[in-house]
Amino acid sequence: MQAVESLVNTPILADCAIRLGRRPKASLQDLARKAAVRTVGLRNYQDESPFRFLDLPYTLRSQIFEYTDLVTPLSEVNWSPTQGFYLHYSTWRCGHMDCPANVHHGCQFRNYWQYANTGSFCSRYHATYASTCRCWSPPTSLFLVCRTLHEDAQAIFAKNRFVIAPIGGCFHSAESTRSRLEASIFLKDVMPLNALPFLRFLDIIIPPFEDDYLRPNEPAYQEWLETIDWIKGKLCLSMLMLRICAADCLMTSINTTTYRSKITQEQAQMILGMYGRTVAPLSRLNSLHRFFAHFAWPFAWTQIGRRLLEDNLGLVQQQVQKWEQMAEEIVMGNDYNSNELGKGKQGNSQWMEQWLKNAQWALITE
Question: What distance in Å separates the CA atoms of residue 272 and residue 314, rounded to the nearest whole number?
Answer without folding.
Answer: 20
